[in-house]
Design a protein that fits this description.
The structure is a single chain. A hairpin with a 5-residue loop joins strand 1 and strand 2 (about 45). The longest helix has about 35 residues, at about 80-115. The model is unreliable at about 335-344 (pLDDT under 50). The strands form 3 sheets. Strands 6-7-8-5-9-10 form a 6-stranded mixed beta sheet, with helices on both faces. By secondary structure, it is an alpha/beta fold. The chain has helices spanning about 10-15, 20-30, 45-60, 65-75, 80-115, 120-125, 165-175, 195-200, 205-220, 225-235, 255-265, 315-320, 325-330, and strands at about 35, 45, 135-140, 145-150, 155-160, 180-185, 240-245, 275, 295, 305. It has 3 domains: about 10-75, Orthogonal Bundle (Multidrug-efflux Transporter Regulator, Chain: A, Domain 2), CATH 1.10.1660.10; about 80-125; about 135-330, 3-Layer(aba) Sandwich (Rossmann fold), CATH 3.40.50.300. It is globular and about 60 Å long. Helix content is about 45%, strand content about 10%.
Length: about 350
Amino acid sequence: MEAVTAYLKPSEAARRLGISVKALRLYEQHGLLSPSRTAAGWRAYGAEAMARAERLVALRALGLSLAQVGRVLQGEGGDLEPLLACHEAALEARAAALKQTLERVRGLRGELREGREATLEDVVAVLSPGARRPVSFPLPWPWAGEPFELPDVRPLTHITGPLGSGKTRLAGAIAAALPGTAFLGLDRLTDGGAVARARLAADLGLKNRVEQALAWLVEDGASETAALVALLAGMETQGPAALVVDMIEEGLDRATQQALIAWLRRRGPGARPLFFLTRSDVILDLEAVGPDETLVFCPANHAPPFCVAPFRGAPGFEALASCLAPPEVRARTAGTIAVRTAAF
């Protein structure tokens, strides 16, 4: 990190740390970071606060919950050794993959020097041998069969749009187009999550995975509710190659949504692809979208959905942003259905 020679504004501090301003606020809310205040009451980050924030960011990158980060910063390092071991294993796997890619690149270069003609497909195969092919299919109603394509499948794909834009139908079409993909609908909340509880009671392996995820989420500020348990039961089910989730924030409060999206992002680039519908500005914090995430927007006028780059000025960015709302607003409008009145 660059040396801090003066107090920084939140936006400047966040940029140097490589995180969002909202992440800084979250650390402050949990008592992990205490920035100074200007005479006018504005937050200001000096050298000491930035050094502590840098440690926070590093610990979060290891997969620690906010509660675990707090314990480590207080000198209780018991959580570090197993997490460092997991991180070491992940780095070794990444190094091995990079070594294999380097060998393939060298091999292809050798073939080119010997006169072989290479295509773009050859280069893609060398650089991303395990990458999925683009997902493409004709769009269902309410569209007119226009072609839809995702250029690649990333670990997290957010699907959003206004009410009645067809985003649920798009999600179902993606689930049908991707082999081995399961769809987790809102019926997961039926009977207060009774079906999920029954599944956990019948599958001890699933129960253990859900309990581990739940423990991390609760430590990060989530509330253990039937809605969260039902969601985790679906997400931790083994078998599907990818998962599509309808309105992932349904039934979850702000703190739980904050913990959930942090947990999803820490899975890393090798995780099972997850597609989910959302209209929450906590789940889809446009300031925090990373390189392993895709944004898909369904316009209100039933024009074909398309991918949106996560920065202001990109085509569709402002329209997409206008579809997102705080969890409190989403809770007030839960269950609202867009109705097209008949013309007389």
